[in-house]
Each structure stands twice: as structure tokens, then as C-alpha cells.
């Protein structure tokens, strides 16, 4: 398999988190998205949570009209979100699980236990031309269920791997990396396009970026944090370099 260019989707939710802390208009996540575009991001990811704790409806409207690069619209599989996504027809719709009380997206979407329901739910997106992605744990049952319902893309949840790295629990990091590695290969065999995201940093991105089946990484929290110190464009470009150097075997 060839190592084609790995796409970087920049998640701008965390700019909106800072904005919403004061309830005003700044910092503007759409401005961040446009800077990310200039800095070489291949796409923008934004998660319109049901509680609107960061991205809000008007952000999605502005992103949909102002971006020149693909928008990956993350959302819970609800009727309300389906109507919003169908109105904007983003390049990609990524279904994620949501729990109201969680600090961030803790787990992957349960696809295996609701495959009929989800197959029905994603059909209007497929018909509308949006690429459907399922944010799932690196677990065989979930990967097989994603393929079964006809989702073209999965995004493997890298949170446990990234947390283990941050906490220097190297045995857990290695076992989580092995799960992602195995499931990326298995999903590719089943014909799924593989993305990975959540919690990745300059340190932890390399072992994921080298996986030949992985086509896209979605990264936000670390990049936005790093932007405080080095600026948004340099923070994105540094992530790009980490990915490219790992992919090139440097
Ligand atoms: C699904 C996912 O991983 C992203 O949406 C990211 O975590 C940022 O959003 P939250 O921090 O609200 O989960
Ligand atoms: N889907 C994962 C994503 O968009 C970015 O997650 P994070 O880097 O903000 O944790």
C-alpha cells in the first residue's frame, strides 16, 4: 500500500469554548478556521453539541458559507442534528456519541447494537452527498458494524491512547496503539476509509501518522492550546511537520 498524503483536519471547537466562557463574539472560531485553511489544514472539524457548549448554529452557518476546504460536521445522531446537517450539506458528517455530563467525547459510537437504526439514519446524508463517518472505538464489533451499515468512513477514537501517553502509562499506550493499528488494517480490508482523532499531540501523532491505512487525522485541543504560545498558523504547521516526518520515516 502506498503512503499517500495524510490529511489534517483542524478542530476549532476549542476556540468557541474560550469565546463562550465570556458569552461574547471573541475569539471567533470561524476566523480560526480561515487561518487554519491558510496554514495548510486540509479540512475543518466542528462539533455542534446538543448543549451548544462550544460551537453554535451560527458558527456552522458561517463555516458552511466561508470555508474553501471541506467541513467535517461532528454531531450526535438526533433528529435535530440531522435537519441541521441536511440544511448545510457539509462535505462530511461524523456521528459521535454525546453524554451531557462528559467533559469531552469519552467513548466511541455504539454502532453494533443499533445498526438497523443507524443504517436508516445515515441514508439521507448519503443521498445528499455528504460523506458519513462514524466515530468509534478501535473494536472489531464496531468496525464490522460500520461496514455492515454502509458507512464509507470510520474515525477511530484515539483518546485512550493519547491519555496513556500523557500519563506516561507506556504499557497502556502500547496496547491502545496496537488496537488502533489492528483495527485500521481490518477496516481498510473491509473497504472503509480510516480516520483517527481525539487528544493527539506533537508527541503522540507520529505512531498514528505512520499507519498506511490512515487517511486523515482530526486534531483540535492540543493545537489550539499550543496556538496560545506560538500562534495558530505555526502550531498547525508544526503538527503538519510531525505528521509528514513520521509518514516519511524521518
Ligand atoms: C468527537 C471529538 O473527539 C471532538 O468533537 C473533540 O473531542 C472536541 O469536542 P469535545 O471536546 O466537545 O468532545
Ligand atoms: N474527532 C476528533 C477531533 O475532532 C479532535 O479532537 P481533539 O484533538 O480536540 O481532542
UniProtKB/TrEMBL annotation:
Q: Which residues form the active site?
A: 47, 74, 198
Protein name in the entry: Pyridoxine 5'-phosphate synthase
Describe its assembly.
Homooctamer; tetramer of dimers.
Reaction it catalyzes? 3-amino-2-oxopropyl phosphate + 1-deoxy-D-xylulose 5-phosphate = pyridoxine 5'-phosphate + phosphate + 2 H2O + H(+)
Q: What is the lineage of its organism?
A: Bacteria, Pseudomonadati, Pseudomonadota, Alphaproteobacteria, Rhodobacterales
Q: What is its main location?
A: cytoplasm
The record's Pfam families line, in alphabetical order, gives: PdxJ
Q: Which gene encodes it?
A: pdxJ
EC class of this enzyme?
Answer: transferase
GO biological process terms on file: pyridoxine biosynthetic process
Q: What is this enzyme's EC?
A: 2.6.99.2
Residues the entry annotates as binding 1-deoxy-D-xylulose 5-phosphate? 13-14, 49, 54, 104
Q: Which family does it belong to?
A: Belongs to the PNP synthase family.
- A GO CC term? cytosol
UniProt-recorded Gene Ontology molecular function terms: pyridoxine 5'-phosphate synthase activity
Extract the HAMAP family matched here.
PdxJ
Q: In which pathway does it act?
A: Cofactor biosynthesis; pyridoxine 5'-phosphate biosynthesis; pyridoxine 5'-phosphate from D-erythrose 4-phosphate: step 5/5
Amino acid at each position: 500500500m502506498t503512503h499517500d498524503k495524510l490529511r489534517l483536519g483542524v478542530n476549532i471547537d476549542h476556540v468557541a469554548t474560550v469565546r463562550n466562557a465570556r458569552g461574547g463574539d471573541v475569539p471567533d472560531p470561524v476566523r480560526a478556521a480561515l487561518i487554519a485553511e491558510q496554514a495548510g489544514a486540509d479540512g475543518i472539524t466542528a462539533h455542534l453539541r446538543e448543549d451548544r457548549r462550544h460551537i453554535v448554529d451560527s458558527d456552522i452557518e458561517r463555516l458552511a458559507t466561508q470555508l474553501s476546504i471541506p467541513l467535517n460536521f461532528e454531531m450526535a445522531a438526533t433528529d435535530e442534528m440531522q435537519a441541521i446537517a441536511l440544511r448545510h450539506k457539509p462535505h462530511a458528517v461524523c456521528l459521535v456519541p454525546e453524554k451531557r455530563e462528559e467533559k469531552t467525547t469519552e467513548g466511541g459510537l455504539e454502532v453494533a447494537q443499533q445498526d438497523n437504526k443507524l443504517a436508516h439514519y445515515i441514508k439521507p446524508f448519503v443521498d445528499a452527498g455528504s460523506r458519513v463517518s462514524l466515530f468509534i472505538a478501535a473494536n472489531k464489533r464496531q468496525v464490522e458494524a460500520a461496514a455492515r451499515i454502509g458507512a464509507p468512513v470510520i474515525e477511530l477514537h484515539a483518546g485512550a491512547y493519547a491519555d496513556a501517553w500523557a500519563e506516561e502509562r507506556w504499557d497502556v499506550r502500547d496496547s491502545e496503539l496496537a488496537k488502533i493499528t489492528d483495527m485500521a488494517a481490518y477496516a481498510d480490508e473491509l473497504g472503509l476509509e480510516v480516520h483517527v482523532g481525539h487528544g493527539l499531540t506533537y508527541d503522540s501523532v507520529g505512531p498514528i501518522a505512520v499507519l498506511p491505512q490512515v487517511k486523515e487525522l482530526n486534531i483540535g485541543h492540543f493545537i489550539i492550546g499550543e496556538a496560545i504560545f506560538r500562534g495558530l498558523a505555526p502550531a498547525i504547521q508544526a503538527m503538519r511537520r510531525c505528521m509528514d516526518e513520521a509518514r516519511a520515516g524521518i
